[in-house]
Each structure stands twice: as C-alpha cells, then as structure tokens.
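Batch 3, record 17
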Amino acid sequence: MKRNIMKLINVKIWILAIAACLAVQAASAQVRPPLSFNFNYSIAQPLGAVKNYSDKTSFRGWQAGLQYMLTDQVGVGIKSGFQDFYYRTPRAVYPTKSGDISAVQTRTLQVIPVLATVQYQFTKPDAVVIPYASLGLGVANMNYEKYWGMFVDKDNSWQFMASPELGINIPFGKASPLLFNASVQYNYSPYKLAEITNFSTIQGNIGLRWHIN
Amino acid sequence: MKKGKKNFTIVSVRRKVFLGAIVAAAVILSLGSCRKDPLNDMTEEESQIYITNRDTTADFSSYTTFSIVDSVAVAGNGDTARRALTDYDRQLIAAVKSAMQSRGYTLVDKSAKPNLAINLTRIDETFASTYYDPGYWSGWGGYWDPFYWGYPGLGYYWPSYYTVYTRERAVSIDLLDLQHAEADKEVKVVWNAMFRGAGVWNSGYINNMINGAFNQSAYLKK
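Prediction for the assembled complex:
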C-alpha cells in the first residue's frame, strides 16, 4: 500500500516535471526554440591603461556563445571569444635599474574571455527588432607579450572579467530561427601587469544568432 | 509514450549541444591563432636592442685618459675566446674610439697607464648546445684578458648584471676602471653596452648602435 502511494507520487512528480518543461518550451517555442548559438566578428578599442600600452584599435577579434531562453525575454548562457591587441612603438630609450635600454617595442595582448551571461530582451520574441541588455561575468585569459626588439617579456594569467552588453537581434523573417545580431559591450578586468594597471576596452560585435533547439 | 518522446528530445538536444561545442572548439582553435605575429614583419634594425648598464657609484668625470684594445675578442659556442680584426672589428674600434673622444676623454697608449680601458667582444652563441636565458636585460661579460691590460694579479669585479646566456650573436663593450685598480685590488667594469638582435655583426649598423649607446649614457663624459 505504502509502496503504491510512493509510486503514485513519483508518477505525479514526473507528470508535473514534464508538464512544466513543456509549458516553458511551449511559451518560447511559439516563435523559436530556446537554445541558440551565436558567432560574431569583433572590433575592440582599448581604453585607459590598455590604451597607453597598446594604442591601436583591434580588428582581430571574434566572439561565440550559447544561450538558453528561460522565458520569452530572459536567457542565460556562456560566451567566449578572442581579441588581439598589437602596437609597435618607434625606437625609444627605457630606463632600467642600473642603466637604459633602447628598443623598438611591440606591445601585444591577447584576451580570451570565458563568461556566464544573463540576458534580458526588451520585447517579445515576435518583434521585428529585439533589443536586449546582458551581463557577462567570468574569467579571461590574458596573454601579455611585450617585445623589446626581438626579445620578449611574457606573462599569461587568468583574471576576473565583467562585460555588460547592449544589442539588437533582427530575425530574418518573423519566426525565423536565424537572427542578425549587433552589439556594443564594455569589458573590465582588474588586471595588473607592468604598465597595465587595469583592463578596459569597448567592443563592437556583428554576427548571427541561430536558434538550434 | 510521452516519456519516450521527452527522452528522445533530451538526447537530441544533447547531441546538438555536443555538436555545437565541437564546432565552437574547432572555431576557437582555428581562430585563436589569428593574432598578428610581431616577428613576422620586423626589420633587422627594429629587432636590435641597445642595453647599457653602469656602476652607479662611479664618477665618470674623474677619468681623463682611456685606451682601447687593438682587436676584438670573439667568444662563444664553447670555444676558447680568440681575437680577430676583421673590417667590422676595425670599424667598431674606430667608432668607440671617436665616441669616447667626443665625450672629452683622451686616447693614450696602453703603456701610458690609462684611467679607463675598453674591451670589445663579439659573442656568438648561435650554435651553443646549452641554453639559458634569464632575460633580455642581462649583460654578457665580455671576454676578459687580464694580461692584456697588465693586471694579472688582481681579482675582477663583475657587477650583478653580468650573466651568461643566449642563443644568438651579440656585441659587448666593457669599460674598465684601471685608475683605481691598484687601490681597490680589483678591476671594476664601470660601464657596459650590449647590442643584441638580428644583424648586430653587420658593419652597416655600427654607427647606429654606438651612437645609440652613448646617447642614452649622457653621464659618460669628462
């Protein structure tokens, strides 16, 4: 008897769970499936101390992510990417402890973030343009390579990173699983190495989002 | 029935996520290397660095006369150092000589008890089997021939920035204090210039390198 009740409760839990899942799916699956993948080309402008170190806009970057919509307007996900900063100085003299070094410096920094994201979309998924705001929190791999002539000062480390982002998704047709994506994000990391006292950049992304399931 | 469908959906989602992850990993691997290579477009001149170090306790205006070696030591690759006098070496000696004279020092013969002595060394470690690199900033102690300058009995003081390293060619200028050698019971290296990078054994760069090293050492004057 007791065993039968337990069995019944188990079945009820199962049905409730399935129903809940289906309800969530149905709510968002009306327009497009909840799981999406995005890939973007990125341009980044260094700010502050990074600008002093490597004063050149980076056109070598990309970003990719996976996102799951919990509701019509709220999604969670992960994202990663790559950005390469590169700047070559004219020959200059740099003081050292007991002397000086004259060198052409090539200052590079490669950043690979790995962030957990939460996104809020300001419209329902059937809108023609879907503006959103998101926040990414996580870590970033900082690969610092400063060349003195052909000789390099190297450091590789992981740092905390925060990236708020504002963007728009434009579906290719009302219920299309494929969307055009454009966004602007700010990246901050309390990264300290030599002349870099903290890391901040502003980044523009353009690419595609594809709802796969 | 429903449960079966649900399982099927979960498996299908997992498969797609898995496939997506593989695609993402492949993309990351292929694009992660799309950085600009700093060494790719670097000229020989850009690759060169001029490192100068000095004894911060030395008073460079207290010296009056100097003498310079009549040939250049060639050290490295585990060989016993030898002396050479190629066209490059002649130009190097001449360039250092005139740079010292322009800073107010008087060139004398080594028999005339100069205050300062200058050693020149070309270092060739391109085929060395051992490799040790504590950093670009460290100097390589130039080849030291105590008998050449006539102080065979004294110990030698090498500042801490001297370390043996490199798998490359380099050129080193050592300025030795002979004026205080007897009193200090040692011959001090009071100034060193190191030229590292591609083409430093090419005579076309001698003037650039010597001018650079002296310009960044404004304290080195009578």
